[in-house]
Amino acid sequence: MPPQHAIEACAARRDTPGKVIIRSIKETAGGVSYQAQDNGCGMDEQTRAKAFRRFFSTKGRKGTGLGLMITRKIVYEHGGWIDFKSQKNKGTTFTIRLPRLKEAQSELKTVR
Ligand SMILES: Nc1ncnc2c1ncn2[C@@H]1O[C@H](COP(=O)(O)OP(=O)(O)O)[C@@H](O)[C@H]1O
Ligand SMILES: [Mg+2]
Fold first, then answer.
1. Which residues contact ligand 1 via a Cβ below 6 A?
2. What is the overall mean pLDDT for the chain?
3. Which of 8, 6, 11 is nearest to 22 (CA)?
C-alpha cells in the first residue's frame, strides 16, 4: 500500500530525514482523492515504467512485487484510478481517486 511504500522509500534514503504526507481530498463531483507523498528514494525511469507489474520489485528478498499490482486491481474494481509521480532521490507521490458509489448514494437516501 502506498503509505507503507512511502515509509520504506524514506528508510532507503539516508541523506535526508524522511517525511510522509497523507492527504485526502473530497471532490465536488462526489468522489474522493487520496495522496501519499514521500521524500524517499524515488524511482528512476525504468522502475517507474515497471512499478505496477506483477512480481516487479527492487527490494530483493524483502519484496514480492505484488503490492502495487493488487492495489491497482482493487482501485480499478471500485471504478477508481491510481497514478504516481516520482523522481529518483527526490521522492514519490501516489494518487488514488475513487468515485462515490451509486449504491452508497441510494443507501444514504433511504436512511434520510
Ligand atoms: N513510494 C515509493 N518510492 C520509491 N519506490 C517505490 C515506491 N512505491 C513503490 N516503489 C517501487 O515499486 C516497486 C513495486 O512495488 P510493489 O508492487 O509494492 O512491490 P514490493 O513493495 O514488494 O517491492 C518497489 O519495489 C519499488 O521499487
Ligand atoms: Mg509493496
1. 5-6, 9, 38, 40-43, 47, 51, 56-59, 63-69, 92
2. 90
3. 6
